[in-house]
Amino acid sequence: MRRLLAGVRALPQGPRPWCAGVVVVAGRGPVIAVEEAYGWALRYAAYDPEADAAVELPRERWVPMRTDTPFDLASLTKLFTAVTAVQQLERGTLGIDARVAAYLPEFRAAAEHGITVRQLLTHTSGLRPELPLYDCPDQAARLAALQAEAPVTEPGTYCYSDLNMLLLQHVLERITRRPLDLLVRDGITRPLGMTATGFGPCPGAAATEYQRRPWAKADRGMLRGVVHDENAWALGGVAGHAGLFSTARDLAVFCRTLLAGGSYGTARILGPDFVELMLTPPGLGFGIDQPWFMGELAGRGDGGHGGPGGDGGRGAAGHTGFTGTSLVLDPVTDTFLVLLANTVHPRRQDAASEARWGSPRTESGGGPRAAAGTRLARAARRRP
């Protein structure tokens, strides 16, 4: 674990740090073995594009990172949407191979192309990665754009897309007649005691980006405590693909719950068979055995979408988020790793972009997430 901490400790350091600040929590079974924070939750006031440099706040206004600092989870939100969907599968109110049109007949393009719930959960609907909803004039126009959005590739072909979870959100809200934030609260965070997890705003969260065009999609200034993702922001902060805030300790509870088959203490959010369904390749919402961000924790399943070979069983499962967040849980070693960083503070860079779990772009060569996963895997193998 010393090597894991040394690697994480270095991430906010140097003239071009990977992040302003970072929190790491790792453990095995019910034991949290590592919980540390380094760097700064808030350090910068802006970004100067002409100088290609961050504009720092006065030193006395820097806010140290703490282990209980909340983070904008970005695409880790998708995992909570996926768990909420699998809960409906378990209750029999949602069919895994049902067509989206069975629940949302007004979503014309999805109906025409026969998109299914399974395709939404496995990113095989053929929908493009995102849609500029932030440019629509109002919520009615945003809904109309989603309803009319057709696949750009043949359904059944893998293409990671935020739109999958936005459509799934509409399905869940239709069949339950409840908004997504309440479904997540009452079905996941409240029973698990995850009191620091919820949709924003979230005062005191780690700062994210100084959003200005052209590098961002909207002119919003320095963001702290409000959702970073422009589409989630345009949708009011509650979206199936982004919008949740949480702490590393809360996410450790989430990981431990899934490793334990859906239960934590006296609470049960899913039955073991449905956790197995969710974490078996190719995974429902989760990426399975993706070494580009899991390092050597990956490799024991079949890799989901063209990943490494293995015994075909459950592999490591997890996801990343654009703001610098990630989590991995490994059923083989019963270990979990939560790495939360504000890599987009003060602005997004190529190296901070989310190399999504099905499309490794920037960190496949062993970036900080993969290095942390490898160090945890080696530490776990050294134990009896």
Produce a short descriptive summary:
The chain has twelve helices and 16 strands. It is of the alpha+beta class. The strands form five sheets. It has a seven-stranded antiparallel β-sheet with strand order 5-2-1-16-15-14-13, sandwiched between helices. It has a three-stranded antiparallel β-sheet with strand order 6-10-7. It has a two-stranded antiparallel ribbon with strand order 3-4.
Report the CATH C-level class of the largest domain: Alpha Beta
**Shape, please?**
globular
Secondary-structure arrangement, i.e. CATH architecture of the largest domain: 3-Layer(aba) Sandwich
Q: What number of domains?
A: 2
In the predicted model, the low-confidence regions spanning at least 5 consecutive residues are 301-312, 351-365
Tell me the quaternary state.
single chain
* Strand portion: 15-25%
For the biggest β-sheet, the strand order reads 5-2-1-16-15-14-13
Distance between the termini: 15 Å
Secondary-structure element series: HEEEEEEHHHHHHEEEHEHEEHEHEEEH
Rg: 20 Å
Walk me through the topology.
Elements: H1 2-9, E1 21-28, E2 31-42, E3 44-48, E4 53-56, E5 63-64, E6 71-72, H2 77-91, H3 108-112, H4 117-121, H5 139-148, H6 162-176, H7 180-192, E7 198-199, E8 210-211, E9 221-222, H8 230-234, E10 244-246, H9 248-259, E11 263-264, E12 267-268, H10 272-279, E13 287-288, H11 291-294, E14 317-321, E15 325-330, E16 335-341, H12 368-382
